[in-house]
Design brief:
The chain has about 300 residues and is an alpha+beta fold. It is built from seven helices and 16 strands. The strands form three sheets. The protein has a six-stranded antiparallel sheet with strand order 12-13-14-11-16-15. The longest helix has 12 residues.
Length: about 300
């Protein structure tokens, strides 16, 4: 059997295990940050967001940006004031261009790329949420992403290293974006939505997010996200088909990863609801490999 090269370096895997038992801070300052400001700011954002910006009670939430029923990006929107919003997205999307082009219809709005103005951090680990629940900071934002709740922090870019040093001094472990992705995967968070098969994209998006602002095409075939652990070491590729015990295709692999002290790789799959056994199959080099469902590691 061919062994798959670790998707993460051993040090990164150990970093995840350590942060999981404690608290981790991840520097995400390199992601795109766009400021939308003006009396009609929420109207401009509602032009693209599948969730209504003006009815969300939280000061920070995740949403999907779409145009003509086509996916643009997944993003976090932070309400800085009643007329000022910050949009954060990780993908190299065309969102900024869309916002600026539609700004002509909303002349009382300005749109700026403020990626270099702000620093941005996310916090993960078993004890991280408990630590922040009692905190009431103006730059701390709680966000729920596809059912996974964690905290984020927005600061001036000049304070980036001071923030990291502060949290490291009080017991937080610095983690990188790859380790942070393992936290997301372990909570069934589907990343890289832009890489979803077109056939499944709108179906998955409508299941992951409550589209109360625009109609997202749905299908009678409902799909969901599930975690699996392989029963052998093997080479896994994205888009690899997943089969049920009757050898019928029920979905495909979206993400995969490894943890250093775990023997076999993990799979985040998109599968048909009500069609999945507790044990499913991957077909590798004309041989079948069992993958079994597992809970959060």
């Amino acid at each position: 059997m061919i062994f798959m090269k670790n998707f993460y370096e051993p040090s990164e895997n150990n970093n995840f295990v350590q942060a999981r038992k404690c608290m981790g801070i991840c520097n995400l300052s390199n992601i795109n940050k766009y400021t939308v400001y003006g009396p009609s700011a929420k109207d401009l954002l509602n032009k693209f967001s599948i969730r209504k910006v003006d009815v969300i009670k939280d000061n920070s939430f995740m949403t999907i940006m779409m145009r003509h029923n086509k996916f643009i990006c997944e993003c976090q929107i932070i309400k800085l004031s009643p007329i000022k919003y910050l949009v954060l997205c990780e993908e190299n999307s065309k969102l900024l261009g869309y916002l600026k082009s539609y700004r002509k219809k909303y002349p009382l709005v300005t749109v700026d790329d403020t990626s270099r103005v702000y620093s941005f951090f996310s916090f993960h680990g078993d004890k991280a949420c408990d630590y922040f629940k009692l905190k009431n900071s103006s730059n701390l934002y709680k966000v729920t992403r596809q059912g996974y709740t964690y905290f984020t922090m927005l600061t001036s870019s000049v304070n980036k290293f001071a923030v990291i040093d502060h949290f490291k001094a009080i017991g937080f472990l610095e983690i990188n974006p790859y380790v942070r992705d393992i936290f997301l995967y372990n909570n069934n968070v589907l990343t890289n939505l832009n890489n979803l098969s077109y056939k499944y994209k709108n179906i998955i998006i409508s299941n992951l997010y409550c589209a109360d602002n625009m109609k997202v095409n749905k299908s009678k075939k409902l799909y969901c996200v599930k975690q699996f652990e392989a029963t052998k070491n093997l080479i896994i590729t994205k888009k690899m088909p997943i089969y049920n015990s009757k050898r019928k295709k029920i979905g495909y692999v979206h993400n995969f990863y490894r943890i250093n002290n775990k023997k076999f790789p993990f799979v985040l799959g998109i599968v048909r609801k009500f069609k999945t056994d507790k044990i499913a199959l991957l077909k590798v080099n004309k041989s079948e490999v069992l993958i079994k469902e597992y809970q959060i590691y």
